[in-house]
Automatic annotation (TrEMBL):
Family that this chain belongs to: Belongs to the eIF-2B alpha/beta/delta subunits family. MtnA subfamily.
One of the protein's GO biological processes: L-methionine salvage from methylthioadenosine
GO molecular function terms attached to this record: S-methyl-5-thioribose-1-phosphate isomerase activity
HAMAP family: Salvage_MtnA
The protein's name: Methylthioribose-1-phosphate isomerase
EC number(s) per entry: 5.3.1.23
Function: Catalyzes the interconversion of methylthioribose-1-phosphate (MTR-1-P) into methylthioribulose-1-phosphate (MTRu-1-P).
GO cellular component: cytoplasm; nucleus
Active-site residues (renumbered): 248
Compartment(s) of residence: Cytoplasm; Nucleus
Keywords for the protein's UniProt record, in alphabetical order: Amino-acid biosynthesis, Cytoplasm, Isomerase, Methionine biosynthesis, Nucleus
Catalytic activity reported: 5-(methylsulfanyl)-alpha-D-ribose 1-phosphate = 5-(methylsulfanyl)-D-ribulose 1-phosphate
């Protein structure tokens, strides 16, 4: 059983998120009573991870809708559109919230125009769609895990085991459950083909040291925590089979925005001839962005670099640069692991076209 970052009970209309700022020391769930709470817990990174951001954002809207009264379908559509666009503003780089918002706004427009649909029906169908998004993320994660495990194993002979590097947190704490890159690692472990996983600390928020390590210990997966600066020395001294990381936004040409530090891992992997994989659901691919240079990179507060909790670790007054993500060019990516299969970056455009056809 993986950890639950999101607890949602549609009968009691209760939504709670595991406050990831307090992990691994304190396990505390925070109530999300509506869209304003949803925006805050996402923006503060109490909940983070591209798929989890979309799920919590949409569920916070569902909770609010169940408590609201609407005069008309038009009013419902207008309110839904405004609140979803507000939720998209909570964090700019991950595309999943934007994609979910577009899908839900399209649905609201269709239902609003359809004279055969009553206001009550519209609310019911809309809430059902949000529930579906949550359930789909869980099934997609399992498919991503299995597809990625098979791909990595296809590169090794016989029934040998593999040694994998991962960055940031892409597990149950970043999704609705199981994980994307960490889902691949879970599948390799379940297949008894994972010799060891090396997870990076992932400065400055320490998603690796605080969250991925927490998940790996919880699942009893053989693992070692390394500093971000150790990846090249590790690849020089160990026979690493593959790198697998998550994604916040994949451009149509396969360029991928992911946690800061991902790009340099990809460069080191290229130098050491270690295949570098991105694992992400199709909801992380943005067909409207042609290349990685058009992806907005969020910059976070200096304090996330100068302090760990309340403890200052950098000289007072030193200016900081704190981009939360970087972009790995498609040329450094061996494959993009999705729930539909594993694709080379240059295949993404054609796959998008076939999916939307
Ligand atoms: C499956 S999570 C994808 C992605 O999100 C994380 O960023 P953050 O912790 O800032 O939300 C990280 O980049 C993961 O790879």
């Amino acid at each position: 059983m993986s950890l639950k970052s999101i607890i949602y009970d549609q009968v009691t209309n209760n939504l709670e998120i595991l406050d990831q700022l307090l992990l691994p020391g304190i396990t505390k769930y925070v109530k999300v009573k509506g869209v304003e709470d949803g925006w805050k817990v996402i923006n503060k990174m109490q909940v983070r991870g591209a798929p989890a951001i979309a799920i919590v954002g949409c569920l916070s809207l569902a909770v609010e809708m169940r408590n609201d009264k609407f005069e008309s379908k038009k009013q419902l559509r207008q309110e839904v559109e405004g609140k979803l666009n507000y939720l998209v503003s909570s964090r700019p780089t991950a595309v999943n919230m934007k994609g979910a918002a577009e899908e839900l706004i399209d649905l609201a427009n269709q239902l609003s125009k359809d004279k055969s649909v009553s206001l009550e029906d519209m609310i019911h169908k809309f809430l059902l769609k949000i529930q579906h998004l949550l359930e789909k993320d869980i099934t997609d994660n399992q498919s991503i895990g299995d597809n990625g495990a098979k791909e990595i194993l296809s590169r090794v002979s016989g029934d040998s085991q593999v040694r994998v590097v991962t960055h940031c947190n892409t597990g149950s704490l970043a999704t609705a459950g199981y994980g994307t890159a960490l889902g691949v690692i879970r599948s390799l472990h379940a297949m008894k083909r994972l010799e060891h996983v090396y997870c990076t600390e992932t400065r400055p928020y320490n998603q690796g040291a605080r969250l991925t390590a927490f998940e790996l210990i919880h699942d009893k997966i053989p693992s070692t925590l390394i500093c971000d600066s150790m990846v090249s020395a590790l690849m020089k001294s160990r026979n690493i089979s593959a790198v697998v990381v998550g994604a916040d936004r994949v451009a149509a040409n396969g360029d991928t925005a992911n946690k800061i530090g991902t790009y340099q891992i990809a460069v080191v992997a290229k130098y050491h001839a270690v295949p570098f994989y991105v694992a992400a659901p199709f909801t992380s691919i943005d067909a409207k962005v042609s290349t990685g240079e058009h992806i907005v990179i969020e910059e976070r507060p200096d304090r996330e670099m100068t302090h760990v909790g309340e403890h200052r670790i950098a000289a007072k007054g030193i200016p900081c640069w704190n981009p939360a993500f970087d972009v790995t060019p498609a040329s450094l990516i061996a494959g993009i692991i999705t729930e539909r299969g594993v694709f080379k970056p240059e295949q993404i455009k054609a796959v998008l076209a076939s999916v939307s056809a």
